[in-house]
Write a structure and sequence with these properties.
With 596 residues, the protein is an alpha+beta fold. The protein is 34% helix and 25% strand. It has 15 helices and 19 strands. The strands form four sheets. Strands 1, 2, 3, 4, 5, 6, 7, 8 and 9 form a nine-stranded mixed beta sheet that branches. Strands 10, 11, 12, 13, 14 and 15 form a six-stranded mixed beta sheet that branches. β4 and β5 form a beta hairpin. α3 packs antiparallel against α4 and α5 packs across α8. The protein is globular, with a radius of gyration of 30 Å. The relative contact order is 0.10.
Length: 596
C-alpha cells in the first residue's frame, strides 16, 4: 500500500513538472510573439471585431509616418562582413528600442514597419471616461489648462512624441564606419480604419496568414507632409495643425506648401514633454486588453511560421541573416479601402495575391498603405521555402498577378530584384516585425515606381539568374534615387513553345522546351543510335485519351473525379498498330510554373 502511494506521488510530481514546463514554455512564447501584433489588433479581438470582419476598427486619431535615412548605407557595409547580420540586428535594436519606448509612452501604436520607416497610430481616446482618471489634471497633463478633447490631445501627444524623438535620436551613431540614422516625419489626423485581410494558408504551414493595414485620409496627408520635412524635422498637415497651433511653436515656413507646417518645439508656457508623457502613461489601459495564452493561436495569424517556430524554442535571433533572395515590390491604385465595398475588394485583392504567391512558394512579407499607395512586398528565398530557381518563380508570380490586377481593375507596377539582403527582425522586444533590408530591396521599389501600367521591370541580377522559359528584353537604362549611374533594366516575357515539334528538315529533334538550331540528338536508322519515328505535342484531353490507348490502357474518367480507383497489377501491352509497340517516350507539356 505504501509503495503504491509513493508511486502515485512520483507520478503526480512528474505531471506537475511537465505542466509547469509547458506553462513556462508557452508563457515565454507569448512574451516573444506579442511583439508582432499591434495594440489595436488586440483591442479589436476583445471587442469582438476580429472574427470574420474585414474592417476591425473604425476610429479617429493622429497618424505619424517616420522615415529614417542611413539604413541602406549600414546594410551595404555590413553585408560583406561574416557577422554582418548580427551587427546589423544589434544596431537596429539599439535604435528602435528607445524609439518604440517613446512611442509607447505617448500612447502611440506602431502599426507597420516599412523597411526603415514606421507608421504609428495615436487614437483619440477620451481619458476622462477612464475609471482611474483624476480630474485634477487634464489628459494633456498641464494643471490649470482646460481639457483639449480627445482628438486635440492625440495630435498633441503625437507632436510631442515627434519632437522628443528628434531631440533624442537625431544623428544616432550606429558605431559602424561613421554611419548615422536620421529621421524625417509626417503627421496627419482624421478618421482611420484598420483592416484585416487575407486568410489563405501558406504552403509551409496549416495556419491561415493575415495582414492588417491602416487606411484613411491621414495617410494621404502624410504622403505630402513627410517629403516636405528634412532630416530632423516633423511636418504637420493642415488638419493636424488646426488642433495644435496654439500649443506648439512653428519652424521654418514652407514656401512651396504654406498650408503645411513644420514643428519647432512645444509652447513650454503651456505644455512640456514630461507632463504630456506622464499623463499619457497614467491613463494608459491598453494592457487590460492584451492577448494571453488563450490567444496564442490568434497571434500566429500575423507571424511568419518560420519566425514563430524560433520564438517557440527561444532562438529568435537565429532568423537574422544575410541571404540571397528575390524581391517583388508591387504598387496598386484605384482602390478606396475606406468604403465597405472597397474593404471587401481589398480582401479579394489580398487573398488573390496570396494564392498567386503561394502557388510559386514565395512569401508575402507586407501589405500596407503608405505615401506610394497600396504596396505589396513579396520575397522568394526565405526559409523554409528556398529554391535554386527563386528568381524565375518571382517573375512567373508577377505574370499571374498582372492578371489579378486586370481582373480587379487595379492599376499597378512591379519591380523585381535579386541579391544579398538582410532578412530578420526589425524593432524592439516590445514591437517588431520580420522584414528584409538592403540596396536591392530599395531598387525593387524604384523599379516598381518606373514600371509602365501593370508592367514588370527587373534588374540585371534577376535577368542573369532566370531560367530559359523567361525571355528578358533590355530597355534603355534609367536613373534612380540612390544610384550615381543609370542602371540596366529588363522587361520579362514568357518564351513561347517551339513552333515545330518533331524532326526538322535538317534532321534536328525539336522538343517543346527546346527549339534551337542544329541537332540535339544524333538521328539515324542504325541500332546503335536513337531512332525517332513520330513526335507530337499532346495539349488536349482528346490527345491524352489517344495516348493512353496507344500505351495499352483505356482512358478512364474516374481518374479525374474524387473517387477511389483500383488499378490492375497486370501489365498491359501496346496494341499492334500503336507507335509504342516496341517502346517509346511520352513527354507531358504544360505552361511554365509550379506543378507544371
Amino acid at each position: 500500500m505504501a509503495k503504491n502511494l509513493q508511486g502515485e506521488t512520483k507520478i503526480e510530481h512528474r505531471t506537475e513538472n511537465v505542466l509547469a514546463w509547458f506553462k513556462k514554455r508557452n508563457g515565454d512564447t507569448l512574451e516573444g510573439a506579442l511583439a508582432f501584433v499591434p495594440w489595436i489588433v488586440q483591442q479589436s479581438f476583445f471587442e469582438g471585431m476580429l472574427n470574420e470582419n474585414t474592417v476591425i476598427h473604425r476610429g479617429n486619431g493622429a497618424v505619424v509616418f517616420s522615415d529614417a535615412s542611413g539604413f541602406t548605407a549600414l546594410t551595404e557595409r555590413l553585408a560583406k562582413r561574416h557577422n554582418g547580420a548580427e551587427l546589423l540586428s544589434r544596431c537596429l535594436t539599439n535604435f528602435f528600442t528607445p524609439l518604440i519606448d517613446l512611442i509607447n509612452w505617448y500612447r502611440g501604436d506602431v502599426i507597420k514597419f516599412s523597411g526603415d520607416a514606421l507608421t504609428v497610430y495615436f487614437p483619440d481616446v477620451d481619458d476622462t471616461k477612464s475609471p482611474t482618471y483624476d480630474d485634477t489634471v487634464p489628459p494633456h497633463g498641464s494643471y490649470g489648462f482646460p481639457d483639449l478633447g480627445p482628438m486635440a490631445t492625440a495630435v498633441l501627444r503625437a507632436s510631442a512624441c515627434c519632437i522628443e524623438i528628434h531631440k533624442r535620436l537625431h544623428g544616432f551613431d550606429t558605431g559602424v564606419d561613421g554611419v548615422t540614422f536620421c529621421l524625417h516625419i509626417g503627421l496627419g489626423c482624421g478618421p482611420v480604419n484598420v483592416l484585416q485581410v487575407g486568410g489563405v494558408v501558406p504552403p509551409e504551414t496549416h495556419v491561415p496568414r493575415y495582414e492588417y493595414l491602416l487606411a484613411g485620409p491621414p495617410l494621404e496627408q502624410i504622403s505630402i507632409a513627410e517629403p516636405l520635412a528634412r532630416n530632423g524635422e516633423t511636418c504637420l498637415s493642415p488638419q493636424a495643425w488646426e488642433y495644435v497651433k496654439g500649443s506648439v511653436v512653428e519652424g521654418r515656413i514652407l514656401e512651396e506648401r504654406p498650408d503645411y507646417h513644420l514643428l519647432s518645439k512645444l509652447d513650454e508656457r503651456k505644455y512640456t514633454f514630461p507632463t504630456i508623457r506622464n499623463a499619457a502613461i497614467e491613463n494608459d489601459r491598453r494592457t487590460e486588453m492584451q492577448f494571453g495564452l488563450a490567444e496564442l493561436n490568434i497571434i500566429r495569424r500575423y507571424t511568419p511560421s518560420a519566425v514563430f517556430k524560433q520564438i517557440e524554442v527561444g532562438t529568435l535571433t537565429y532568423v537574422n541573416e544575410m541571404r540571397n533572395i528575390s524581391v517583388i515590390f508591387i504598387s496598386g491604385s484605384g482602390l478606396d479601402v475606406m468604403s465597405d465595398q472597397g474593404a471587401a475588394k481589398a480582401q479579394e485583392f489580398m487573398s488573390s495575391v496570396q494564392r498567386a504567391t503561394y502557388a510559386h512558394e514565395g512569401t508575402l512579407n507586407k501589405f500596407l498603405i503608405d505615401d506610394k499607395g497600396l504596396l505589396f512586398l513579396l520575397v522568394f528565398g526565405l526559409p523554409p521555402l528556398v529554391h535554386t530557381d527563386d528568381p524565375t518563380r518571382a517573375v512567373l508570380a508577377c505574370f499571374d498577378m498582372v492578371k489579378i490586377f486586370v481582373r480587379l481593375q487595379i492599376v499597378g507596377g512591379f519591380g523585381v530584384t535579386t541579391g544579398r539582403s538582410y532578412c530578420g527582425t526589425c524593432g524592439s522586444a516590445k514591437r517588431m516585425e520580420y522584414t528584409v533590408l538592403g540596396d536591392m530591396v530599395n531598387l525593387a521599389a524604384r523599379l516598381m515606381s518606373n514600371a509602365p501600367r501593370n508592367g514588370i521591370l527587373c534588374d540585371e541580377a534577376t535577368k542573369d539568374r532566370v531560367t530559359s522559359e523567361i525571355v528578358m528584353n533590355a530597355l534603355a537604362p534609367i536613373k534612380v534615387k540612390g544610384k550615381s549611374q543609370p542602371i540596366q533594366i529588363f522587361q520579362p516575357g514568357l518564351k513561347g513553345s517551339a513552333s515545330h515539334i518533331g524532326l526538322s528538315s535538317d534532321n534536328a529533334l525539336l522538343l517543346p522546351w527546346y527549339s534551337g538550331s542544329g541537332s540535339l540528338f544524333s538521328i539515324s536508322g542504325s541500332a546503335e543510335h536513337l531512332t525517332v519515328q513520330q513526335l507530337c505535342s499532346v495539349k488536349t484531353w482528346a490527345g491524352v485519351k489517344t495516348a493512353k490507348e496507344w500505351l495499352g490502357g483505356p482512358f478512364s474518367k474516374e481518374l479525374h473525379q474524387d473517387l477511389q480507383v483500383n488499378f490492375s497489377s497486370q501489365r498491359l501491352r501496346a496494341p499492334e498498330q500503336s507507335p509504342f509497340t516496341k517502346g517509346g517516350i511520352i513527354v507531358i507539356q504544360g505552361e511554365a510554373g509550379m506543378g507544371e
